[in-house]
Design brief:
The complex is a heterodimer of chains A (about 375) and B (about 375). With about 375 residues, chain A is of the alpha+beta class. Helix content of chain A is about 50%, strand content about 15%. Chain A contains eleven helices and nine strands. In chain A, the strands form three sheets. In chain A, strands 2-3-7-6 form a four-stranded antiparallel beta sheet, with no helix packed on it. Chain A has a three-stranded mixed beta sheet with strand order 1-4-5. In chain A, a hairpin with a 2-residue loop joins strand 8 (about 260) and strand 9. In chain A, helix 7 (about 220-255) packs parallel to helix 9 (about 305-330), helix 8 (about 270-295) runs antiparallel to helix 9 and helix 9 runs antiparallel to helix 10. Chain A is globular. With about 375 residues, chain B is α+β, with helices and mostly antiparallel strands. Chain B has a four-stranded mixed beta sheet. The longest helix of chain B is centred in the last third of the chain and has 29 residues, at about 275-305. Chain B has three domains: about 5-85, Acyl-CoA dehydrogenase/oxidase, N-terminal domain (Butyryl-Coa Dehydrogenase, subunit A, domain 1), CATH 1.10.540.10; about 120-235, Butyryl-CoA Dehydrogenase, subunit A, domain 2; about 240-375, Butyryl-CoA Dehydrogenase, subunit A, domain 3 (Up-down Bundle), CATH 1.20.140.10. Helices cover about 45% and strands about 15% of the residues of chain B. Classes of the chains: A alpha+beta (about 375), B alpha+beta (about 375). Chains A and B meet through helix 7, strand 9, helix 8, helix 9 and helix 11 of A and helix 8, helix 9 and helix 12 of B.
Chain lengths: ~375, ~375
């Protein structure tokens, strides 16, 4: 029994942290979030060379062949500094191609994703705002061996920068996944700015987009898409817990320095107790997430329940951390200059992403009933 | 990360399961004295009482993993406790093993393992609860004896105990209040001790006030050095481990709660079909699983030989929250009948909803746990 990270994983964490602290501290994040593209192509390229973009892509396809536990380590660090990049989007899209693509499809696309030369994203959520499979309604009419897509996807992660979309759709045969290049005829991408400027999302319209047979992921199914969504949810959770932990740390630091009534405010229980409560919740959500990541890697039957428990818990915990961190800073918490608002805004993106707390608690209960 | 057990550990788990199959058949009456006597004899023969203690003193010399496996299997089957001397096994024994003289070990440890009699714990005083180190129970040495005068309170099972582990103040003139405290082991039938039971809010009396009036205790009954009482007792309290048994207990409670929700109605439908109820139950599941995996992370640290920090406080807080909340929702689901003594399930939920203080207040209150986390983990200033 070992419920800890390996030495290699600890080392990976150190390296990612060193890289982000050196190249993209919060001052740099603030600069990037004011740019039109919102991230640094240069850092993206460097991360590709370091092998991090392809972390979970098989070695045969140019990746590092690691699992979701390893990815958790990287994403916690990226969440810590609110690192803006299409890392999460591309990783999730690559997982979809791996889970549902044929050997040829994987061989064709994954190497380009792994080295960062192509940015990809899963286009899943529709205006109905349902994250589950029942929410997939994008119309797909048979056309030759392929399909013609009509409809829209919203909240598509890094849509403005993406070169390739993995699009969930519904046809007579059920749920499918199509690979659609951004420059395909009939695809229109519109940026939908978030209050979280470190995160870019967009709306993607498909207006009679023809998709050839070889661009329909060969093994797409309810089960495959369900697993992709679980993987994505765990990844989002890792990033948000890294962010929540850092937001607590920033607030603790402030509470040690700021003095009122002759004492550091961190001496007052009205300050220290909420911080302790938030620590308990973030630690506990992390513990569940680590188990969920392990269960996903092992393809354990308990993985979906674990993922939902982690996301639900993390959604509520991060929402509270986001608000309380601002509040515990007093007036400076409301300023643009201090950092807590950046985390508060991230929590607003993260809470509903891939299902909010209610959505996942409902799933947890359903799993219990199915047992 | 790897949740698999070694073949030896798997074999041990199988051994425990086989033992339970044989000695705890379904439907066994675990409150029958004859059954319990037999159970106690058998688990003692297995050395599962004091399982973590060194073999030299009669314990089981178990590894941390074996302890976890044993606890887990036992609580899964709702087995009776391993051993009957609760406080002796939980902290008196460990303190004696660590700080006791050879004579004290021989005198007390076998009796604790055999459950010959009960120990009680005399730490809290009327003026010293959360601030335990401020305790004032007076103690002066006269030749080969200590003379104790003062009062203890909340002393669980004092009226049924043969011995008490007592914290007294031998030096009132210390700069740091934690110094000047001494630990004594005292027979409860010593002249000058008076026990007055306190009725609790469930109506029973499990704890008591204990008064000491010129109580004479031989010096040989001192545990550890004079003035060392704080370390002697605190290090033994730190023996509490990964909360495995508590988690199993809470998981069982949650299943029972779901069953109650199936049988209760809300707005004319089973409560288990109500979104609000469902989500609250799922939230409990998240916190219980949080405890479970927090426990495993802590366990992994222990297995690597690292000391535990505030991990135990994290789980104590979650447990405190859950103990209260599970009782609350249970009564809420019973609607207007929630306050009736015996209307639903013979009144077991009412009993449960009135018993949380044992857990929530007894072992250090939530506020104190939050202080511990804020100060020792987050590094915030002490108040
Ligand atoms: C069922 C039960 C069994 C017990 N058994 C035993 C036993 O066998 N032996 C024994 O010695 N003791 C026993 N106790 C006593 C127990 O350890 C104390 O009750 C506990 O430590 C709290 O002390 P107190 O009751 O004096 O409360 P207080 O310390 O007076 O606390 C009252 C309230 O003030 C809060 N508070 C206190 N200090 C602070 C602070 N610094 N910051 C914020 N809030 C604070 C507490 O959180 C609490 O809410 C038992 C208690 C119970 C309920």
């Amino acid at each position: 029994m070992n419920f800890g990270f390996t030495e290699e994983q600890d080392l990976l964490r150190q390296e990612v942290r060193k890289f982000l602290d050196a190249h993209c501290p919060l001052e740099e994040v603030r600069k990037l979030m004011e740019t039109p593209e919102g991230f640094s192509r240069d850092l993206w390229k460097q991360m590709g060379e370091l092998g991090w973009i392809g972390l979970t892509v098989a070695e045969a396809h140019g990746g590092a062949g690691l699992g979701w536990v390893d990815l958790t380590v990287v994403l916690e660090e990226m969440g810590r500094t609110l690192f803006p990049s299409p890392y999460l989007a591309t990783t999730i899209a690559a997982a979809a191609i791996r889970e549902a693509g044929s050997a040829e499809q994987q061989a064709r696309w994954l190497p380009q994703l792994a080295d960062g030369s192509k940015i990809a994203s899963l286009a899943h959520l529709e205006p109905s705002d349902r994250w589950d499979l029942a929410g997939v309604a994008l119309d797909a009419k048979p056309q030759g061996g392929g399909v013609t897509l009509n409809g829209a996807k919203v909240q598509v992660l890094d849509a403005p920068a993406a070169d390739l979309f993995v699009v969930s759709y519904r046809s007579a045969g059920g749920v499918g996944l199509a690979l659609v290049e951004r420059n395909a005829a009939g695809v229109a991408v519109e940026a939908t700015p978030s209050i979280d400027a470190t995160r870019r999302v967009g709306r993607v319209r498909f207006d009679g987009v023809a998709v050839a047979a070889d661009a329909l992921l060969a093994n797409a199914s309810d089960a495959a898409l369900g697993r992709v969504l679980d993987l994505a949810t765990a990844a989002v959770t890792a990033e948000m817990l890294g962010a929540a932990e850092q937001d607590i740390r920033i607030t603790v630091q402030y509470a040690k320095e700021r003095e009122q009534f002759g004492h550091p405010i961190g001496r007052f229980q009205g300050v220290k107790h909420p911080l302790a409560e938030m620590f308990v919740d973030v630690e506990s959500a992390k513990s569940i997430l680590y188990y969920a990541a392990w269960a996903l890697d092992e393809r354990d039957a308990d993985a979906p329940r674990a993922v939902s428990l982690a996301k639900a818990y993390a959604s509520e915990a991060f929402a509270r951390v986001g608000v309380d961190a601002v509040q515990l800073h007093g007036g400076v918490g409301f300023t643009w200059e201090y950092d807590p608002h950046l985390y508060l805004k991230r929590s607003k993106w993260a809470r509903p992403a891939f299902g909010d707390a209610d959505f996942h608690y409902d799933r947890v209960i359903q799993f219990g009933e199915a047992k | 990360m790897d949740f698999h057990l070694t073949p030896e550990e798997e074999a041990f788990r199988a051994e425990v399961r086989a033992f339970l199959d044989e000695n705890l058949p379904p439907g066994a009456n675990t409150s029958d004295p004859a059954f319990l006597a037999e159970w106690n004899r058998k688990v003692r023969a297995k050395r599962w009482v004091g399982f973590s203690w060194p073999k030299e003193v009669g314990g089981g010399g178990a590894t941390i993993m074996q302890q976890v496996i044993l606890k887990e299997e036992m609580s899964k089957r709702k087995a009776p406790a391993l051993g009957t001397c609760f406080m002796g096994l939980a902290w008196v024994g460990p303190a004696i093993i660590q700080y006791g003289t050879e004579a004290q070990k021989q005198r007390f440890i076998p009796d604790i393992l055999d459950g010959k009699y009960q120990w009680c714990t005399g730490y809290s005083e009327p003026g010293s609860g959360s601030d335990l180190a401020s305790l004032q129970c007076k103690c002066v040495r006269e030749g080969d004896e200590y003379v104790v005068n003062g009062q203890k309170i909340w002393t669980s099972i004092a009226m049924w105990s043969k011995w008490i582990i007592l914290l007294v103040r031998t030096d009132p003139n210390v700069a740091v209040k934690h110094d000047g405290i001494t630990c004594l082991l005292v027979p409860m039938d010593t002249p000058g001790i008076t026990v007055r039971p306190i009725k609790n809010m469930s109506g029973g009396a499990m704890f008591a006030e204990v008064f000491f009036d010129d109580v004479r205790v031989p010096v040989e009954n001192r545990l550890g050095e004079e003035g060392q009482g704080w370390q002697v007792t605190i290090s033994a309290l730190a023996h509490e481990r990964s909360s495995i048994a508590e988690v199993e207990g809470l998981k069982r409670k949650l299943e029972e709660l779901k069953d109650l929700a199936r049988r209760s109605t809300k707005n004319g439908r089973p409560a288990l079909e109500d979104d609000g109820i469902r989500r609250r139950i799922a939230r409990f599941e998240a916190k219980i699983e949080g405890m479970r995996f927090n426990g495993m992370r802590a366990l992994t640290k222990q297995l690597k030989g690292e000391a535990l920090g505030a991990e135990t406080s994290v789980n104590k807080l979650l447990r405190a929250e859950l103990e209260v909340a599970l009782g609350e929702i249970a009564l809420e689901m019973q609607g207007s009948a929630g306050h009736l003594e015996k209307e639903v399930d013979g009144g077991r939920w009412q009993k449960f909803a009135l018993s949380w203080p044992e857990v929530v207040i007894g072992g250090g209150t939530p506020n104190i746990q939050k202080n511990i986390i804020a100060e020792r983990v987050l590094g915030l200033p002490k108040d």
